[in-house]
Amino acid sequence: MAYTYEIDVEKRLVTVVVAGVLTAADVQSFRKQVAADPRFSPDFAQLNDLTEVTRVDTDPMSVQQLASSTHRRGPVRVAVVTKRPEVIGVARMFETYQRVAGLQERMRIFEKRDAALAWLLDDQAAV
Q: pTM of the prediction?
């Protein structure tokens, strides 16, 4: 998995762009890197642009573990941008596992990045 991320402290937003094969191990590694970034705060919203993901290589147990060990805190909005049915399915599984675990993250799936960003920034304006 190749990824880049940007943290906009003023907007309280983490933007992640992922390409290639997405694995649970890569997500865990990414989380550690972002959490160590001094600009990061666990209550920032997050935009996950997965439009360039070519394949998801994971299993339901790994998705459950990732969902229950989030690096965010509170009712944070998380947007996933993708059109690929496989990625949508894994994102929905992730969201379900988070609800079962009682986490407060609010996740939505979008086909267009602009719509996702508008939803995330609208929430920030209400804070």
A: 0.88
